[in-house]
Design a protein that fits this description.
By secondary structure, the protein is of the alpha/beta class. The protein has helices at about 15-30, 45-50, 55-60, 70, 95-105, 125-130, 145-160, 180-195, 210-220, 225-240; strands at about 5-10, 35-40, 65, 75-80, 90-95, 110-115, 130-135. Helix 8 (about 180-195) crosses helix 9 (about 210-220). It is elongated, with a radius of gyration of 28 Å. The protein binds S-adenosyl-L-homocysteine (SAH).
Length: about 240
Amino acid sequence: MKTLENIRFVLVGTTHPGNIGAAARAMKTMGLTNLHLVTPKIYPSAEATARASGADDVLANAAVHDSLDAALVGCQQVYGMSARLRHLPVPVVNPREAVTQIQQQSDDAQIAIIFGREHSGLTNEELDRCQHLVNIPANAEYSSLNLAAAVQVLAYELKMSFDPSIEVGRVGEQREAINADDLEHLYSHFEQSLIKIGFLDPGQPKNLMRRLRRLFNRAELDRNELQILHGILRAAENQKGE
Ligand code: SAH
């Protein structure tokens, strides 16, 4: 099974220890723990620990290397995070595309995602080590995120893609699906009721039923909601009958 443990975040030449702590925190909130530091300016540091605020275990387990090569040992795929789109012969993807690619790798593939220095990013030599560049599409006039913020964006996308308990459009209750027959039955009930209560003139129906169909088709009704609508129609018919 593919796991987030095979994905390492590599921070290269980080200047501010606070950013290292904030990056550890960003990772831990998304279930990532594999942090590698390449020649950090000031580390270990009380400021890093303070900014990690509860993610100090991720910091404590971080591997510190004296070269990028050492941090990439055993990695099959290397992604480089770049705020600037340089003219390099390397494909540039956004974080979501990068994560989709990562999902397609074999389960045991080791993946590295590398982040550059606060002031100057990654050098060309460091970018040469990357098979893919990842750019977070940002404001064209102000596109450089804080280092830990960039870490957060990637970590979030990984979590969204790797955590099977996250379903898009999830709701808190079980919704029983209905089928096309159920909808047809609802529409004919609507038609009869609306005629009965005097809202729909069968001699001049205009587009009312078509519009109602469009409305309810968009709503993706479940069985419970379908029953509520039938109930309302029956109640309206009974009111009219009284
Ligand atoms: N001034 C630097 C940006 C440094 S920000 C430059 O122009 O390259 C520190 C690191 O955060 C960057 O090296 C990169 O790894 C990451 N980062 C910041 N903004 C990003 C963005 N929009 N897309 C991808 N990575 C980004």
